[in-house]
């Protein structure tokens, strides 16, 4: 039995990883070590990594059988792998090969290409833009005022963005990312009006999901009305965001996009929100489709969960080294460091800060402080009965409102005030278990009538984009009985406008009394119940931080506190070479 077969039999690699190694053998691979590494780099890409570092292979072998581990450690020294480089299966990137070895990192060719393209494009675009600095200072003073007591990080970020062709703005919840960007866009329009009074620049807003795009649209629409600007400048500020896939003209059947380097987007400035959710292939496609003259502003929270697919692009772009003044990309990055949502007596803010510190002592101090906006419900990870009881109590106002036949708009608003978030889909405390259990509890405790899947009050979340309907991944709707037809319809708030759809027309969807933390990105709720399940590799610092910071007014921690403490010490480390390519440039 070959080494790859052993790995497959013991469940250490997936079927696709195994057959990739088999395919290499069929193409003439004579090195069993290279076959194993090929399966391993394929498996790691499925875990979100862009490559594997040959110098750290021992970490990947840790769960392997001893005999296989010893064999691989002796046969996979970096210099031995480098000796396998040829021009057919493993190359240096100069020619198309299935695998690429570059600076001690082993890649699948397409990820290596994406990484190189993203780094090269961003570095090429990280140039200053000719600016009338006196006019800029006046505009900054008008919109941000003059703070002589402390650094105004919003002002710094806006100034950075209008003076660079590409800018990254990272900040936690409540730091004013949308406010900053709205004012930055106004300043950009003022500068462009001064340079070319008769040309109206094209500004586009985008985000990875429909929910995030809708929130960006609503936030900018609200923020712009608080600005004292001329009507023509206000009119130039966009209010309608879209998903990145729709912006690029995704063609799922072709695994490509309508817009590309050969057919670039018609845009002068593109703002992308929730950039932490953008994976490496999508970022490569986006940068390829941007015209050379266009500017790009990426907004997000570098501390949040990385993208579901491969890469941690925003985190890599924000990984500023200790000597930033000497780095080409440094002037393009700005951080918002002051939270206006979480004041000094906020437990949510303190807990988020403690989790990010990676120190269990700091987390324990927050939990023991008695903050009003934090509630702790200790429970064993095998107990979901108590959790269902908690959900019944917390969702009671919503269930009663449904029974009272309140209007769709009111029900959508009420449902959005509370959400249960889970770290994982499966398991005793996973969403696939909790949602059916909660529905059964609704029948027994509230006499909710369920005829099949559909019932009044069923909340559903769209899980696949459908541009023809205007429904996108992450959109949440409420099911209600149509009094005229006697059939169920699902109501959505689409950018401030109510829309209803028959259940048969909906794209892929699922019940959403509980959702995963991943799915909650780009959303906020007044209250969040964060389920702390079993301590496993899924629970990470970024996952609990993201879950905690979805709450605006109260965060309820349910489960084993040891899971929270363990996750605090497990930052997500995705292997890639993007940070080195960006920050190694001087």
Give the secondary structure arrangement, pairings included.
Elements: H1 3-9, H2 15-26, H3 32-46, E1 51-53, H4 57-60, H5 66-75, H6 78-82, E2 90-91, E3 99-102, E4 105-108, H7 109-125, H8 133-144, H9 153-162, E5 166-171, H10 177-195, E6 203-207, H11 210-224, H12 231-236, E7 241-243, H13 244-248, E8 250-251, E9 256-257, E10 269-272, H14 280-289, E11 295-300, H15 313-317, E12 333-336, H16 347-357, H17 360-367, E13 374-378, H18 385-403, H19 408-415, E14 418-422, H20 431-446, E15 459-462, E16 476-481, E17 488-494, E18 497-502, E19 509-511, E20 514-516, H21 517-520, E21 525-532, H22 541-548, E22 551-559, H23 561-568, H24 578-583
Helix pairs in contact: 1-2, 2-3, 7-14, 8-10, 9-10, 10-11, 16-17, 16-22, 16-23, 18-20, 22-23
Explain the overall architecture.
This protein is of the alpha/beta class and 586 residues long. 41% of the residues lie in helices and 17% in strands. The protein has 3 domains: 3-108, Orthogonal Bundle (Arc Repressor Mutant, subunit A); 125-341, Rossmann fold (3-Layer(aba) Sandwich); 347-452 and 507-569, Rossmann fold. β10 (269-272), α14 and β11 form a beta-alpha-beta unit. α22 (541-548) packs across α23 (561-568). It contains 24 helices and 22 strands. The strands form 5 sheets. The protein has a 6-stranded parallel sheet with strand order 7-6-10-11-5-12.
